[in-house]
Amino acid sequence: MDTRQALLVDAFTEEPMTGNPAGVVPDADGLDDEQLGAIASELGASETAFLTDSDAADRRVRYFTPANEVDLCGHATVASHAYLFERGHIDAGEHTLETNVGELTITVDDTGLVWMTQDQPDIRRVDVDYDEVAAALGLDIAALEDVGADLPLARATTGLPFLLVPVNFIDHLRALEPDMRAIEEISDEAETAGIYAFTFDTLDGDATLHARMFAPGEGVPEDPVTGTASGACGAYLREYDAFDSIPEEMVFEQGHFVDRPGRVHVKVGAEIEVGGRAVTTLDGDLVVPESEDDEIIEV
């Protein structure tokens, strides 16, 4: 009977049961897609990172939501490397990671802060009506048009695409009443994984912005803290001159309105980098069924 170590690691936080929980399977060699999907479903995290050997990099990773595979996931990348560093499997310094979007560089500093270099950004305006987006998010259209005079609705990606939606005030962001079916339809229309709504009105004084992210089409109604979307948003802010001079390092806060507060560090330079800390909250073994079985995985 095949058993594999499986963990839940809370990313973009140092406090257990906050931030964004990621599944991590440190040794996924030999597992097929059916088994990977079953494990991700059993762990129940928004994404699970499956690490395997790689001929091209230090290691290979694939990411699965409970519904399907995605090409890139920031919080699961931070979670997996924070765990490897915590257990002494890797040292501080640079590490290479083979992903579906290419080879990325991961840097871990001496304190355990993990930085993930994302793919080169691709940003473009989208032909989506403000009233349609406002209705999907459950807020007044004025909350979008107020900011939209300077910052447009846009599709932004640094490996995984999101629809970027600026909102004027945090009270409006707090009061969202999302229509998941409508968000999924808009996401499909814009060819994105989901909607990333953000405001420069923040809870913590040192934060750059506050965000919420919805990706029901990926099996994630609301993601607590989203690394890939943060990287895409950092590139978007530079693209549309949100600042006279973009800060050397930004902090994006997210998850407070789903009781999973977290912080993402973002650098926008020659490369887009997303950083964070993580803490392991669950470490155990899974019994993996044969790939042709439909049995539920036993924990």
Can you tell me about this structure?
The protein starts with a strand and ends in an 11-residue tail after the last strand. With 299 residues, it is an alpha+beta fold. The protein has 2 domains: 2-97 and 278-288, Diaminopimelate Epimerase, Chain A, domain 1, CATH 3.10.310.10; 122-270, Diaminopimelate Epimerase, Chain A, domain 1 (Roll). 23% of the residues lie in helices and 35% in strands.
Average the pLDDT over all residues and give the rounded result: 94
Q: Helicity range of the residues?
A: 10-25%
CATH fold node name of the largest domain: Diaminopimelate Epimerase, Chain A, domain 1
**SS field, number of helical segments:** 7
Strand content: 35-45%
Shape by Cα distribution? globular
The first-level CATH class name of the largest domain = Alpha Beta
Distance between the termini: 13 Å
Model regions low in confidence, pLDDT < 50 over at least 5 residues: none
The number of distinct β-strands equals 18
Question: Biggest β-sheet: count, sense, barrel?
Answer: 18 strands, mixed
CATH superfamily of the largest domain: Diaminopimelate Epimerase, Chain A, domain 1
Total tally of structural domains:
2
Based on CA atoms alone, the radius of gyration comes out at 19 Å
In N-to-C order, the SSE pattern is EEHEEEHEEEEHHEEHHEEEHEEEE
What does this entry show, briefly?
By secondary structure, the chain is an alpha+beta fold.
Tell me the layout of helices and strands.
Layout: E1 2-11, E2 20-25, H1 33-43, E3 48-52, E4 59-64, E5 69-70, H2 74-86, E6 93-99, E7 102-108, E8 114-117, E9 122-125, H3 130-137, H4 142-148, E10 154-157, E11 161-166, H5 170-174, H6 180-190, E12 195-199, E13 209-215, E14 220-223, H7 227-239, E15 250-254, E16 262-268, E17 272-276, E18 278-288
Parallel strand pairs: 2-3, 4-6, 11-12, 13-15
Antiparallel strand pairs: 1-2, 1-18, 3-4, 4-5, 6-7, 7-8, 8-17, 9-10, 10-11, 12-13, 13-14, 15-16, 16-17
